[in-house]
Specification:
- The chain is 28% helix and 34% strand.
- By secondary structure, it is α+β, with helices and mostly antiparallel strands.
- It has one domain.
- A 4-stranded antiparallel beta sheet has the order 1-2-3-4, with helices on one face.
- The chain is globular and about 50 Å long.
Length: 119
Amino acid sequence: MQHIQKLAICGLAFFTVSSCTVSDDYLPASIAAFEAKDCEPVVEQAIDKADIDRGKISKIEYLKHVISESDAGEEYNYQGWVNFNNCNGNYVVDMNRYCQIQTTYPRGNCKMQDIVAQK
């Protein structure tokens, strides 16, 4: 009986601790994307993780970047281009065809310090 009581207490403690942890990754590991716009949730999460000020965003474009075409099929990646109203440039989110982020980077004269939210 005492063993069961200890297991119940340990289980409750584990559940409490595991439910209190917060993850910035609120999306599945990959998405079945049929077009670039299907990667929108991933780009939104990348914007949140980079702490970009949403008030400075003028628009977000989703592009299909064709790497190669052959008889075997098309090889491509997706990109999210975030445009800003306070600088000439973009924040680019490069993803594979499953919307998994490969890299992110600013382009043009948009520097990270110009586009992140002020704290």
